[in-house]
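Hi again,

Forgot to attach this to my earlier email, sorry! This is the prediction with magnesium ion bound. I've pasted everything inline since the attachment limit keeps bouncing my files.
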Amino acid sequence: MQFQKAELVISAPDRRSWPDTTLPEIVLAGRSNVGKSSFINAITERKKLAYVGNTPGKTRLLNFFNLDDRYMLVDVPGYGYANLSKSQLMKFAQMMDEYFEQREQKKGMVILVDARHLPSEDDLSMVEYARYFKIPICIVATKIDKVKPTQRSHKIKMIKQALELSENEILIPFSAISKQGIDDVWKRLIEMMEDE
Ligand SMILES: Nc1nc2c(ncn2[C@@H]2O[C@H](COP(=O)(O)OP(=O)(O)O)[C@@H](O)[C@H]2O)c(=O)[nH]1
Ligand SMILES: [Mg+2]
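Structure tokens for the complex follow:
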């Protein structure tokens, strides 16, 4: 979708810095390097809205992106760093709980997984986390361009099975390179954001 304005409002360490708006928000989560920043850039048709590559030291913040004063995307730090310390893990969990318990305008969560692999334990935990908070989810299986076309439907089926997705937990194959899946993603995002 094309936006006149797509900007990073703030990288928030905690509640005090959350933007003071009532725009509907979609949270984006996924393992580090899964392609979350590339996803944000692709769906907003911007080249450098979100920083692609490693972002050392900037990983413990919620990034709020304002799209035309209509929608807000909230980029959650990538999880699954094997080298994350206990206290860093605690901070991540605290920040997520604070957001999910207190942010009224949260409308849904996109969880990105790598289309080439079965979901990790961390991916599954994130899905269960969203279910616990009764947040609608949308799974995006990214880097689908790296899966041979003949294997795609099988891979997708395996991921759906592993996450035990129900009918309203949609999975969308996606590629930031070929742009496959963008229309389906927006259809689902708008559904979630415009749901009262
Ligand atoms: N082939 C392919 N590579 C991708 C895709 N999305 C991201 N990447 C690459 O994966 C790496 C990590 O991407 P990034 O967006 O920074 O991931 P993040 O850490 O989840 O934000 C980069 O080298 C990207 O170019 C995709 O859809 N297809
Ligand atoms: Mg990123």
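The chain has five helices and seven strands. The CA atoms of residues 142 and 174 lie 5 Å apart.

That should be everything now.

G.
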